[in-house]
Amino acid sequence: LAKEYEAIKTEKDELKPQVEALRSENAALQERLQETSSECEQLQRKLNEVRREYEVLEADKEAIRSGLETVRSKLKELHSKEERHREEVERLSEENDELSSDALLYKEQNDRLKAEDAELRAEFDQLKNECEELRKQ
After folding, report:
1. Which residue in 77, 75, 98, 103 sits closest to 90, CA to CA?
2. Could you report the per-residue pLDDT of 108-136, keeping only the tens digit for each?
3. What is the pTM of this model?
């Protein structure tokens, strides 16, 4: 029994450095686990922060998309108005050309009538003078 006790004691003494090494390694691993847990918590907080920022960016993106849709709608409306104005300008231009043509015809007619009027006045004056002469005779 004493021999067995000595053998166990010797084995225990031989295993002591291994146990100490394992305890030391375990303590180091526990410390590393604590650091890793702390890093994990920090990363989780950072992830949550990034998620919140992402949600804000998504909301901003949606607001921008909505604003862009409004701008597109307004732009389409403006193009439509521009087309109507272009058609109106074209119509008015044609109408103006017709009126200019009519005005030219009226001017020519007016010039002819003035010339006729001048001829008739001259003829009237001549007849008036002839009447005066006939009266005097």
Report:
1. 98
2. 999 999 999 999 999 999 999 999 999 99
3. 0.49
